[in-house]
Amino acid sequence: MLRILLLTTFIHLTLFGLEQNDLKAVFLERFTRFIEWPVQSTLHQETTFNVCVINDTDFAKTLKNIYANKTIKNRPVNVINILENSNKKRCSLLYIGNSEHVSNLVSEAKKYHILTVSHNETFGSEGVMINFYLDQQRMRYEINNHSAKESDLSISYLLLKSARLIPLKSIQ
Amino acid sequence: MFMSIVIAILMLYTSINFVYRYNANKTTLTYETKFLAKLVSQYTITPLVFQDNQGAKESLQQLENIQFIDSALLYDLDNKLFASYVKDKSVTPEDINFVEGFYHDQLYIKVPVSYKEEHYGQLVLIASTDSMYLKLSDELLDIVLVLLLILLITYFIVARSQSLITAPITKLAKLAQSITRTQDYSLRADKVYNDEVGTLYDEFNFMLSTLQRRGEERDEAEAISQQHQLHLERLTEELEQRVLDRTTELQQSIELIKQTQTQLVEAEKMSSLGNLVAGVAHEVNTPLGISITASSIFSNEIQEVKTLLQNNQLTQTRLQTFLETFEEASALLTLNLNRAALLIKNFKQIAVDQTSESRREFELNDYLREISSTFSSEFKRHKVTLHLSYNRDKVIMNSLPGVLSQVIVNLIQNSLIHAFVNTTGATITLEVIAKENNVTIVYQDNGIGIDKSVQKNLFEPFVTTKRNEGGTGLGLNITYNLVFQQLEGSIEVDTTYTHGARFVIHLKTQLPEK
């Protein structure tokens, strides 16, 4: 019920009484409104928008529920739990719940032009493109535009403006 | 007057300007506000999408730097206030459903918030018109100040031109007026300044001099023209007089000529009459001579017989001889006296006819015979025979026989004088061809004929081949006139006849009553 409310209305949202996951899930779709996948990505061949989740089955469940009858990029949403070393070629969005080898995932994502999202303290600076964080009970996000650019994903400046930008760190 | 026009124009300018600027300012404000709204709305997209009221509010807060924005209100899709910014003035957010425009002293502008065809809400900006009016009054003040300055300058210019331009011109106009009134072109304008006005004065004075001179010239020309006019009139009079004189002279000349002509005609008539008389005398002389001879023989015989009787010597034979002689003599006497009487009678007739122009009936053939008989001695002398032929025994004419006789006499005389030079068997023929109402008389002789050079002008006056021998050259002219005018007929010379002279005369048998 609350999820439906969330989907159909724009009530002044706070974290009180609402699941973080719900919020994050909704935000995912919102993000995509401001992001363009490159021509060479698999998104354009896929009939579904594939959201791949690694190590966060709860979030995957939330996603499934929320996007049951919804579309992202005009495609019905397909939420898949995958393993770290699964083939990610067909993923358009990769949610990294937890991982020991984020950098690998980040490189793979770059290869396949996948939008990476996480909710972690360090993942953003490690190359994940959009990283959620909490700021005084408000759900915020930081964006690593360098990473996005390397994946040929273009993020609208409007989204960039509303986010905390992760500065380029020289990575070994 | 100039000043009032200037003032009127400036006031008009000011009011137009005011209206224009007011509208311009409104438009500017609207535009600026709208632009601002569109710009700001961009910054409210992601706040609306990600439910970030705070972020939205912070964006709207940036408007505090804009003087004329009173408040900004951001509404979500449900038309509920999402975020707002309000300047010091407290403004109650109005109902979202309003039309953009000016209300009281504020401007309401509404713009949609959308991104990539996805609608997220509405942004309302409320601008204050205070600044607008302030700006307007500032501008207006500027204008008024400028106008006053212009007015001041204009006043000085007018005042200056008044003395420099208007006054001199007025003076000039007054001068022109007085000149026109008094017709005194000797007046001149006093030049004071050495500028354009001065030039005007100079030119004006020059014009006056020219006018003056022209006026004098014109008067002169008029005087001369009048003189010429008089002269012309005089000449015309003289000319008319001369024409009159000449006409009178001509008329006199014509009269003279007419008289002369008449005289000449008379003279000719006299001459022909004279010829006639001479002819008569000549003709009568012969029978009278014979009569005298007879009577003298007669008286001699009587004397002889008377003596013999007295002496008783008269024999019967002698008496017989005497009676025979007496008989012969008396017969001769009777014949000749009758002859003479007849001649006289004929001549008398002709003479009467010739001198009086009375109209009477006569028989043409007889008359022609009578005329020819008056020439019998002449004919004998010149050895000329006259033949008379006619197609009718009796041709009764009612005309002027005297005139006809003159005509025939003239022709005969011409033949006698001109035609028969060394001609043997000289003949004159008169042929009468009578028709119903007219008669043709053909006169021809077998003489030397008429010279070709003379034939053309034969009937013209003073045409003669015997001028030095006393010919007047009027005979045929008179004949011509008599035939055409008196007898109302025609006479022409036959130029094709080569055996002598040939004339064809056409006459009316009945001359119409005059």
What is the largest interface, and how many residues per chain?
A-B, 14 and 20 residues
* Main β-sheet description of chain B: 5 strands, antiparallel
Q: Helix count of chain A?
A: 7
The second-level CATH architecture of the domain at 357-514 in chain B is 2-Layer Sandwich
Give the H and E element order of chain A. Answer: HHEEHEEEHEHEEHEHE
In CATH terms, what is the fold-level topology of the domain at 357-514 in chain B? Answer: Heat Shock Protein 90
Specify the number of helices of chain B.
11
Gyration radius over CA of chain B: 72 Å
Rg for CA atoms of chain A: 15 Å
Q: Which regions of chain B have little confidence, pLDDT < 50, spanning 5+ residues?
A: none
Oligomer: heterodimer
Outline the biggest β-sheet of chain A. Answer: 8 strands, mixed
Q: Give the number of DSSP strands of chain A.
A: 10
* Strand percentage of chain B: 15-25%
Written description of the protein model:
- The complex is a heterodimer of chains A (172) and B (514).
- Chain A is of the alpha/beta class.
- Chain A has a single domain, classed as 3-Layer(aba) Sandwich (Rossmann fold), CATH 3.40.50.
- Chain A is built from 7 helices and 10 strands.
- Among the domains of chain B are: 151 residues, 2-Layer Sandwich (Beta-Lactamase); 158 residues, Heat Shock Protein 90.
- Helix content of chain B is 62%, strand content 16%.
- In chain B, the strands form 3 sheets. In chain B, strands 2-1-5-4-3 form a 5-stranded antiparallel β-sheet.
- The longest helix of chain B has 115 residues.
- Chain B starts with a helix and ends in a 6-residue tail after the last strand.
- Chains A and B meet through helix 2 and helix 7 of A and helix 2 and helix 3 of B.
